[in-house]
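Reading group handout, session on sequence-to-structure problems. Before we discuss, look at one worked example. The prompt was deliberately terse, the way you'd type it at a terminal:

> structure AsnC family transcriptional regulator

The input record follows.
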Amino acid sequence: MKLTMKGDYGLRAMLDMAAYYGQGPIESADIATRQHIPEQYLDQILMVLRKEGLVKSVRGPKGGHMLAKSPSQITMAQVMQALEGYVPPMECLPNPDFCKLSPGCALRDVWQQIDALTQQILTSTTIEELAQKHRTGSTEETMYYI
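And the output record:
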């Protein structure tokens, strides 16, 4: 699995919103500043996350963005799927015809195991768990930077 900036920024934004969960909407400019994400790019990412039902947006003077559900109910897999789709470690996994050596290839078996373990980790890791780990040992000043 290859993580692009879109996935990285999306996860950072989700962690930022998890830190303020239950406190109302957060302006994208605030998220962008804290997470060092270009605001225009963040707005595009938040739009995708909103369409996938992971983020809610509120318009108006006290508007902004917030998690659509508890951070304990959102997994890394959901965020990654929304932003990246399925990204296999090797092209032959979803498409065995990609490589003539696929049938009986020992390397392909290893890549399948790596992919399965990666998906298992992403599926079992919630945004809440990440936010809690992130808060532990951080100073107030750097609390929500990744």
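Points for discussion. First: Residues 106-124 form the longest helix (19 residues). Second: The chain has six helices and two strands.
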